[in-house]
């Protein structure tokens, strides 16, 4: 990005992120992941990139479109490592 845009902010952000401890890294990564997945699902009305490929869509149990609160709860629950807990 630095060579394309010639903006130092990208380099400075990467340098600062490379110096954080593990817990801070996990928190920042989780926050960025949550914001990304929430925005993708909310702005595309329940269709992420994978859902476009498979032809699926997020809906509520009664068949209606989820609300912003539903998308929020759905995406915040992804932060819990269920795979590690259930393994």
Summarize the SSE layout with pairings.
Elements: H1 2-5, H2 8-17, H3 22-43, H4 49-54, H5 68-76, H6 82-86
Helix pairs in contact: 3-5
Describe this structure in words.
With 87 residues, the chain is mainly α. 64% of the residues lie in helices and 0% in strands. The chain contains six helices and no strands. Helix 3 (22-43) runs antiparallel to helix 5. The longest helix is centred in the middle third of the chain and has 22 residues, at 22-43. It is extended and about 50 Å long. The model has no long low-confidence stretch (mean pLDDT 84).
Residue fraction in strands: under 5%
**Mean pLDDT across every amino acid position:** 84
Question: How many β-strand runs?
Answer: 0
| Oligomer classification | single chain
Q: Compute the number of helices.
A: 6
Distance between the termini: 39 Å
Structural class: mainly alpha
Helix content: 55-70%
| Largest sheet entry | none
**Tertiary shape:** extended
Rg over CA atoms, rounded to whole Å, is 17 Å
**Poorly predicted runs:** none
Task: Give, in order, the helices and strands.
Answer: HHHHHH
